[in-house]
Amino acid sequence: MLIYARFHGRGGHGVKTASRILGTSAHLEGFHVQDFPIYGAERRGAPVTAFTKISDDPLKLLDRGYIFNPNLVLVSDESLLSDPIANPLSGIQTGGTAFINTTKNIDHLQIKHDNINIVVGDVTGLSLRYVGRVVLSTGIGAIATKLTGMIRWNSLEEAVKEELQEIGIKGELLEKNILLAKTCFELVYPAPLPPPSQQKKYKIVELNWTHPPYNIPEIWNIGNTKIRKTGSWRVFKPLINLEKCTRCSLCVIYCPEGVIEMVDNSLVVDYDNCKGCLICFNECPVKAISYVREAEAV
Amino acid sequence: MSSNSRYRSIKDLLSEDYVVAGTPLCSGCGAILTLRIFHKILGGNVVWVNAAGCVTLMVNYPFTPLKSSWMYTAMACAPAGAQGIRDALDILMEKGRIPVDQDLKVAVITGDGAAYDIGLQSSSGAIYRGLDFYYLCYDNEAYGNTGFQFSSATPLGSRTATSPPTPLNPEGYKKKKKDLFEIWRAHKPPYLATISPSHPLDIARKIEKAEKYRGPKLFIAISPCPPGWGFETMETVRMARLAVETGIWPLKEAIYGEVKHTYIPRKLKPVEEYLKTQARFRHLFYPVKNAEIIQTIQGEIEEYWREVYRRELGENI
Amino acid sequence: MIRTKLILELGFKRYLVPPVKRAVMMTGNTAAAWAARLAEVDYIPAYPITPQTEIIEKLAEWIANGEMKAKLTILESEHSMLTAAGTGALSGARVFTATSSQGLLYAYEMLYNVAGWRAPIVLVNVSRAVAAPITLEPDHNDFLSTRDSGFILLHAETCQEVLDLILIAYRVSEDYRVLLPSIVNMDGFHISFTREPVILPEIEEVRRFLPRYNYVNPFRAGKHSAKGVTVLRPPLYSFYKYQMHFSSLNAVKVFKEACSEFEEHFARRYDVVEKYMLDDAEYAIVMMGSFSTIGKKAVRIFREEGFSVGLLKIRMVRPFPKEDIREALKNKKGVIVIDQNISPGFGGILYGEICSALYGFRDRPPLILSVIGGVGGKTLTIDEIRYVFEYLLDCERSGKEPRPILLFREDELEEVKSLLKVGFGGDVFQL
Ligand code: SF4
Ligand code: SF4
Ligand code: SF4
Question: B221 CB less than 6 Å from ligand 3?
Answer without folding.
Answer: no
